[in-house]
Amino acid sequence: MKKIGAQTCAFSHPPVITFTASVAGKKEGAGPLGRWMDWIDPTDKMNQESWEKAESAMAQKAVGLLLEKAKKRAEDVDYLLGGDLLNQCSATVFGVREFAIPFFGLFGACSTFGEALSLGAMLLDGGFGKRVICCAGSHFCAAEKQFRFPLGMGTQRPPSATWTVTGNGAALLETEGEGPRITHVTTGKIVDYGITDAANMGAAMAPAAADVILAHFRETGRTFADYTWVATGDLGIVGKQLLCQLLEEGGITPGEHLTDCGLELFDHAAQDTHAGGSGCACAAITYCSYFHRKLAKGRGRLLLVPTGALMNTTTSQQGLTIPGIAHAICIEGVKPWSM
Amino acid sequence: MKKIGAQTCAFSHPPVITFTASVAGKKEGAGPLGRWMDWIDPTDKMNQESWEKAESAMAQKAVGLLLEKAKKRAEDVDYLLGGDLLNQCSATVFGVREFAIPFFGLFGACSTFGEALSLGAMLLDGGFGKRVICCAGSHFCAAEKQFRFPLGMGTQRPPSATWTVTGNGAALLETEGEGPRITHVTTGKIVDYGITDAANMGAAMAPAAADVILAHFRETGRTFADYTWVATGDLGIVGKQLLCQLLEEGGITPGEHLTDCGLELFDHAAQDTHAGGSGCACAAITYCSYFHRKLAKGRGRLLLVPTGALMNTTTSQQGLTIPGIAHAICIEGVKPWSM
Question: Is the ipTM beyond the 0.95 threshold?
Answer without folding.
Answer: yes
